[in-house]
């Protein structure tokens, strides 16, 4: 075990993010929201540290990807958990519309997890950086500004939705319009995840053994 790799600067940030998420599981609403927000905010820091100190590793990429997926699983779980106790949320969403919205969240989560795990596996086998794809749509998605915008808005979507539900806030006016905008951003990001999944499935289908490089 290479301790110097596991605990290098970017990986230490990644491990700290995981610790904050675990603490958030057992925390009250305000504390959870703070811990989750700090963990999400640190997402950009590990990459900057890795590039600045030349400490980019496969472990770091894997840790970053898994931590992001774990974050999404946790906050969606918290959203669903608190939805039953939010009076204003139940007034805004009928039983039928909430069932549809919860199915939307579940679909987004499944596509997110599948696409990232499949594409990361594809990138490892093909010995390429998963954020430097050859597919033009994915190249567009991994454009620094577009990726930052979509990742930020989707994180805001989850945090905002949790805020509305956990603190029983009325969804009217600006809150309502902001929620609609963030849902659209989430759908756009999920579209790119579907493209990511397609590229991974296409590439992995040509692999006959785990050591063969994809052409």
Automatic annotation (TrEMBL):
UniProt-listed Pfam families: CDP-OH_P_transf
Major subcellular location class: membrane
Record's subcellular location: Membrane
Entry's Gene Ontology cellular component terms: membrane
Keywords, sorted A to Z: Lipid metabolism, Membrane, Phospholipid metabolism, Transferase, Transmembrane, Transmembrane helix
Gene3D superfamilies referenced in this protein's UniProt entry, alphabetically: 1.20.120.1760
GO molecular function: phosphotransferase activity, for other substituted phosphate groups
Membrane topology: Multi-pass membrane protein
Keyword Transcription regulation: no
GO BP terms in the entry: phospholipid biosynthetic process
InterPro entries for this protein: CDP-OH_P_trans, CDP-OH_PTrfase_TM_dom, CDP_ALCOHOL_P_TRANSF_CS
TM spans (from-to): 18-42, 104-126, 146-167, 179-201
Domain of life: Eukaryota
Similarity field: Belongs to the CDP-alcohol phosphatidyltransferase class-I family.
PANTHER family, sorted: PHOSPHATIDYLINOSITOL SYNTHASE, SI:CH1073-145M9.1
Protein's name according to its UniProt entry: CDP-diacylglycerol--inositol 3-phosphatidyltransferase
Phylogenetic placement of the source organism: Eukaryota, Fungi, Fungi incertae sedis, Microsporidia, Edhazardia
């Amino acid at each position: 075990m290479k301790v110097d790799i596991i605990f290098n600067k970017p990986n230490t940030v990644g491990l700290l993010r995981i610790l904050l998420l675990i603490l958030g599981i057992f925390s009250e609403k305000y504390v959870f929201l703070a811990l989750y927000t700090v963990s999400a905010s640190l997402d950009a820091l590990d990459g900057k540290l890795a590039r600045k100190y030349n400490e980019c590793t496969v472990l770091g990429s894997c840790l970053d990807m898994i931590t992001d997926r774990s974050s999404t699983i946790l906050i969606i779980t918290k959203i669903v958990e608190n939805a039953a106790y939010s009076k204003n949320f139940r007034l805004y969403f009928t039983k039928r519309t909430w069932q549809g919205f919860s199915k939307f969240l579940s679909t987004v989560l499944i596509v997110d997890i599948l696409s990232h795990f499949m594409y990361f596996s594809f990138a490892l086998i093909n010995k390429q950086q998963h954020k430097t794809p050859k597919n033009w749509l994915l190249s567009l998605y991994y454009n620094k500004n577009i990726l930052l915008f979509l990742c930020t808005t989707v994180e805001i979507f989850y945090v905002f939705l949790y805020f509305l539900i956990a603190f029983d806030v009325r969804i009217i006016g600006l809150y309502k319009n902001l929620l609609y905008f963030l849902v659209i951003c989430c759908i756009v990001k999920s579209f790119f995840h579907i493209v990511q999944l397609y590229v991974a499935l296409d590439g992995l289908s040509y692999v006959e053994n785990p050591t063969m490089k994809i052409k």
